[in-house]
Amino acid sequence: MPVSEPLNGRLIDWEWNTAHSRLILTLEDGARRFWSLGTDGSVRNITPGGPSRYAEWQ
Q1: Residue 53, burial from CB neighbour count under 10 angstroms (0-12, 13-18, 19+)
Q2: What are φ and ψ of residue 51, in 5° steps?
Q3: pLDDT interval class at 15 (50, 70, 90)
Q4: What is the rounded (10 degree) CA torsion for 58, 41, 23, 46?
Q5: Is this prediction's pTM over 0.70?
Q6: CA separation for the pair 23, 5 (Å, rounded)
Q7: Which of 17, 39, 53, 56 could be cross-linked to 22 through a Cys-Cys bond (beta carbons 3.0 to 4.6 Å apart)?
Q8: By the 8 A CB rule, do 44 and 35 touch?
Q9: What is the layout of strands, in order, in the sheet containing 42-45?
């Protein structure tokens, strides 16, 4: 999956939220990034206050 923005930090933890089909990434500075998986295979960055971006699984 191509990612169009850097994480800007080292990944220290991740969590998959099955109920909402969301991947939650936690960075070393405590920042969190949220990604949502669509039923069509698309991936959307849903980080609050962040850009809304789409990518395709490859």
Answers
A1: middle
A2: -70, 150
A3: very high
A4: 110
A5: no
A6: 16
A7: 17
A8: yes
A9: 11-17, 22-27, 32-37, 42-45, 54-56
